[in-house]
Design brief:
YgaP-like_TM; single chain; transmembrane helix; 66 residues; 0% strand; mainly alpha; 3 helices
């Protein structure tokens, strides 16, 4: 899996997790969803993505391995 796809999967999982926490644990977990969305927007403009940095250290590459 490429780094870009891994970041998308991670973001999707985090959004679904934050929605579940909001519904079943406490309504203030919606702030986690807001944070995730804001981070996605800022990473699109700046190119800085903490999740991509962490996932690249875990072994996800920027392209297919040849």
């Amino acid at each position: 899996m490429t780094l870009e796809n891994a970041v998308r999967v991670f973001a999707g999982i985090m959004v679904l997790l934050s929605v579940a926490l909001t519904l079943w644990v406490h309504p203030n977990f919606f702030w986690l969803t807001v944070f995730i969305g804001a981070n996605l927007i800022q990473s699109a403009f700046t190119g800085f993505c903490p999740a991509a940095m962490i996932l690249s250290r875990l072994g996800f590459s920027n392209g297919p391995v040849r």
